[in-house]
Design goal:
There is one protein chain. With about 140 residues, the protein is mostly helical. It has 8 helices and 2 strands, in the order ααααβαβααα. It has a two-stranded parallel sheet. The longest helix is centred in the N-terminal third of the chain and has 13 residues. It starts with a helix and ends with a helix.
Length: about 140
């Protein structure tokens, strides 16, 4: 895949059902989230930066399996739950995992990469979660 734009595009489309839905809607004419250029730029970035080498994928799977254990994080935390995330964070879990939860918002739109797909909405969430930082 590292040297095949078509192979890499196929990987992104076939990665999971959510990715397929988010990417294919762009090419079927929907004006939501990503553009065609965004998708093609992402493929190109992976090719140019040699991220097409997916040998580290098993390591990511192992790391993700530890994400869901509640850890009792002691710093202030803000959570924005985006509906298309594969690992949508329920408020009940966030409250147990983050004793100093200062902001929780379950949004009704945006995919798995909100900063990329909807940067303005993502920025609003950061400002809402950390108002003291937004003023500085």
């Amino acid at each position: 895949m590292a040297d095949s734009p078509v192979g890499l595009a196929a990987y992104f489309l076939d990665h999971d059902a959510w990715s397929y839905a988010l990417i294919s809607r762009v090419f079927s004419g929907e004006a939501a989230g990503l553009t065609r250029d965004d998708v093609l730029d992402n493929i190109n970035d992976h090719l140019v930066d040699e991220h097409g080498d997916f040998r580290s994928a098993p390591l990511l799977g192992k790391a993700n399996s530890r994400i869901f254990s509640v850890k009792g994080v002691s710093i202030p935390v803000a959570v924005s739950a985006f509906p298309d995330e594969i690992d949508l964070c329920p408020r009940s879990w966030a409250e147990r995992a983050y004793p100093k939860l200062i902001h929780y918002n379950k949004l009704d739109k945006v995919g798995t990469l909100p900063a990329w797909e909807q940067p303005q909405l993502f920025s609003q969430e950061v400002r809402a979660g950390f108002p003291i930082v937004a003023v500085a």
